Amino acid sequence: MFNKVVIFGVGLIGGSFARGLKQAGAVRHVVGIDRSAGSAERALELGIVDEVGTGPEAVADADLVLLATPVAQTGHILASLLPHLGPQTIVTDAGSTKTDVAAAARAALGDRVAQFVPGHPIAGRETNGPDAAIADLYQGKKFVVTPLAENRADDVERVGRAWQACGALVHRLTPEEHDKVFAAVSHLPHLLAYALVDDIANKPHADMLFQYAASGFRDFTRIAGSSPEMWRDISLANQSALLAELEAYMTQLTTLRARLAAGDGAGLEAVYGNAQRARRQWIEAIEAAEAPPPDTAE
Predict the structure, then answer these.
(1) Is the pLDDT of residue 294 over 80?
(2) What CA–CA distance (Å, rounded) separates 84 from 79?
(3) pTM for this structure?
(4) Would strands 119-122 and 142-145 be described as parallel, antiparallel, or unpaired?
(5) Which domains does the chain have, with CATH numbers?
(6) Nearest Cα to Cα of residue 152 among 160, 144, 142, 163
(7) Residue range 188-222, pLDDT digits in tens
(8) How far is CA 292 from CA 138, 139, 185, 286, 296, in A?
(9) Contacts of 230 (CB under 8 A, 6+ apart)
(10) Where are the beta strands (DSSP E) in 9-71?
């Protein structure tokens, strides 16, 4: 599918993309570029990449370039690529926000913005770096492509096929739709998890609290192990939509507080029950979507 792929950021997301493409036999040569020389060399040592790139000139003859870096770096990286970008090279990204990325691409690439196809793989782990990269990270997971009006249909399709080669299920949203959706179901949960762990850690008896925290606390706060830098950038990049979701959540907490203070057990149970039903339906829908197709062989 691709002769040469260049990946900026060879950690969990970029490294897993490279591993997935390699496992599928969809790429001949992968070049990795990372701001940490140690990470780039580690990716080479692990076989994630075939070559460590030294600068943006590495994209000159690339078929596909993936930016798997914090979203705040998108504009700077794209501007550095522009003088070296071949006319047939497609550039995409894996950022968790899209309206800011689209704006950064237009500002950096100008009349060549058509070569940039924004996207977002909906997968991750709380670990980081090349050692966290796995070939099946995207298997059965969603990849959301958020095309620009300037993109060629063939380029959008090719980006989708790359992620399909890694096992992902391709969905399509506008950048604006994407950011509203993920403010609610991704960005807000991360903010809440960080806030809870920070609150516990700052209490005078934090050691005792952490000593007795068990699986419920671990499951709820798992995502607080993610990169603080990355989530700082995501929170600020999607500030407006995230603030709206945070306000709605604070209203919900105020309602729950009032019911708790009033000893309103029925009111609390109603909220808990609705949440339980909604979560079960969500899990069932995920399991149905990710289930392998039935074996129709005779």
Answers:
(1) no
(2) 10
(3) 0.86
(4) antiparallel
(5) 2-173 (3.40.50.720), 177-261 (1.10.3660.10)
(6) 160
(7) 999 999 999 999 999 999 999 999 999 999 999 99
(8) 14, 11, 25, 12, 12
(9) 70, 71, 96
(10) 27-33, 51-52, 64-67
